[in-house]
């Protein structure tokens, strides 16, 4: 009787399905160290925010300007109490410049700060008390003063004066009696407004600041112009510029706001209202800082690990070369190391340079390791090129803002098409 050769049954763990399951589980397991990396990025970003906040608080914080306002005391004919009436300018013109200084640095963290010079001029119309039916003898014209509401007083440079007619009046800080404790007040001494022949005014003030400049448009007609060497402004607040120009050397913007455009009157016979929510503003932002870029890069970690494992799995299935699960683990750890290299190098250089160094290092490491696994140079070369394209693709997406979703969707579609093409001849039943 002839001996018949029987093929030994294949164990389930040797099947393509089992290998696919193990690689998939390993991909999920590697999400744990990837989450640790993301937590590290968040922690370093929070530390940066704390250091920047401390540094800018010493240089100067956001600048808010609300004024100059006529303050005239009067006796209320009904209550007989002494009250204050506030009158806003008929015309308010402003020209501001904001020069971004060399970033302040503490340890490895940098803070963007500016010095702003603000020039105001305009005029007041004759104060009208008819709405309150206040007789002229109840109005203390000779105790008129000028008030400014602002923030960041500790960073005001030099003495602040206002010229009304031909006379200069000096501002002094006064006790804050408003609900918003972050806003402080400056006020001049007494002015006999009846003795002032014209109410044209000129005012200049200089601040050290950071983050934002905002101005309340209290003129019946407010015209403002702001220029700066900052190339990434964010125009915010209740009013956008009527005209703006932004280049890589800076920006200039103009506003024209009428009293018809705002929900407050030109005079107030009670407390001075908080108008911060009606201000127009410019934020001096960094569009995407280095930690944000690191965070966005780490969000693609699952995609990088999954696609890299898929490439190795397809090569293994096509070439019949056996790749041990331990070798997949080593490759996965190398991919995770990309993000730790990226954040550590970024803190001492630019994000682009760090990305190039980390990406080149990881691609070279995995490519050289692949030569020992696959015993060939053809497949490792393909793996190196594929990883290079993948990391380049992710870098491009990170740099894009408006078109990131579009480019990312198209790229993922092409990747899916490539995977479907190269896997079409694999016999999945074995």
Structure, briefly:
With 430 residues, the chain is an alpha+beta fold. It has eight helices and 18 strands. The strands form two sheets. The protein has a 16-stranded mixed beta sheet that branches. A two-stranded antiparallel ribbon has the order 4-5.
Distance between the termini: 32 Å
Chain-averaged pLDDT: 83
The overall strand count is 18
Give helix % range.
25-40%
Please state the structural category. alpha+beta
Biggest β-sheet, characterized?
Answer: 16 strands, mixed
Apparent shape: elongated
Q: What share of residues are in beta strands?
A: 25-35%
N-to-C order of helices and strands: HHEEEEEEEEEEEEEEEEEEHHHHHH
Low-confidence residue ranges: 1-7
Question: What are the defining features of this structure?
Answer:
disordered N terminus; 37% helix; 430 residues; two-stranded antiparallel ribbon; 16-stranded mixed β-sheet
What does this structure look like?
The protein is an alpha+beta fold. 37% of the residues lie in helices and 28% in strands. The protein has 8 helices and 18 strands. It has helices at 16-29, 31-59, 290-298, 301-319, 325-346, 351-374, 378-399, 404-422; strands spanning 63-75, 82-87, 91-100, 104-106, 109-111, 114-123, 145-150, 156-164, 167-174, 184-188, 200-209, 212-215, 221-228, 233-237, 243-247, 250-258, 267-268, 280-284. The strands form 2 sheets. The chain has a 16-stranded mixed sheet that branches. A two-stranded antiparallel sheet has the order 4-5. A hairpin with a 2-residue loop joins strand 15 and strand 16 (250-258). Helix 2 runs parallel beside helix 5. The longest helix has 29 residues, at 31-59.
